[in-house]
Structure formats: structure tokens, C-alpha cells
Amino acid sequence: MKFKLDENLPIAIAIDLSDLGHDVDTSPSEGLAGLPDEDIWCAAQAAERFLITQDMDFSDVRKFSPGTHFGLLLIRLRDPSRGRLIERIQRILDRSDIESWARCFVVATEQKIRVRRPVLAPPP
């Protein structure tokens, strides 16, 4: 799977994803650090990448409706220290079928993962 990590996530997460065989880009490695969220989003979509972020500007499911993009994982931790972020994402990778999240809007907290999938149109 192709991922883009926002600049607000530790590089160790990119390494973990790469070690699992995923294709990973990071905002800083592409010179996107400090740019507006819209630029990060457009870069992720242009490269057909699933964006992982903890930026609450990406939290509006109406704006980022499932099926209208390549995927979005919003990490929401009460204490988003570097270690806790790495630990939580490692647990997600170990216990979840992240491949099935393509084109989904996903929110992960300390205890839960909520996956909103694209709505399939009813047959004619």
C-alpha cells in the first residue's frame, strides 16, 4: 500500500511501514514540511497515497468523505508523545487489515478504531 505520513508523525512510523513492505513518503522528505494542509492533501492525492496524520484539520468526514480519496487515517491520542504514537501505530499495523482501508476515512484513538467505508451505490 502507498502511504504519505504528515510531518506531525515520527519517522520511525515510516520505517515500520516500509519494513512491512509498504511504499512510504513523508511530507518532510518531499519538501512539504510547513506547507498548508491543502498542499499536503493534494500531494497525497496526486500520488494516490493513503495519508496518515494527527492534524485535526483533516477530521471533517463530510469534507473527506470515504470513497472520494485514497484513504485517510487520523490518529487522535490524549497524550500524543513520540513513543505513544509509535506504539499505537505499531499496534494498528499488527492487529488491523490496513489494506482494507483503501479509500476509507479512519480515526484511531487509544482504544478504538473507527473505519468509515465508501457507500456503495445500490444496483439499478
Account of the 3D structure:
α1 packs parallel to α3. Helices cover 27% and strands 19% of the residues. The N and C termini lie far apart (32 Å). By secondary structure, it is α/β, with parallel strands linked by helices. It contains three helices and six strands. It has a single domain (2-116), classed as Rossmann fold. A six-stranded mixed sheet has the order 2-1-3-4-5-6, sandwiched between helices.
Topology:
Blueprint (H helix, E strand, L loop, with lengths): L1 E4 L5 H9 L3 E4 L10 H10 L3 E4 L18 E4 L6 H14 L9 E4 L4 E4 L8
Mean pLDDT across all residues, rounded? 93
Write down how many β-strands occur, each being a DSSP E stretch of 2 or more residues: 6
CA gyration radius, whole angstroms: 14 Å
Order of helices and strands: EHEHEEHEE
Low-confidence residue ranges: none
What is the global morphology? globular
Look at the structure and give the CATH class. Alpha Beta
Q: Helical amount among residues, as a percent range?
A: 25-40%
Question: Major sheet: size, sense and barrel closure?
Answer: 6 strands, mixed
Please list the strands of the largest sheet in the order they lie side by side: 2-1-3-4-5-6
What is the CATH third-level topology name? Rossmann fold
Structural category is alpha/beta
Proportion of residues in β-strands: 15-25%
Structure annotation, total helices: 3
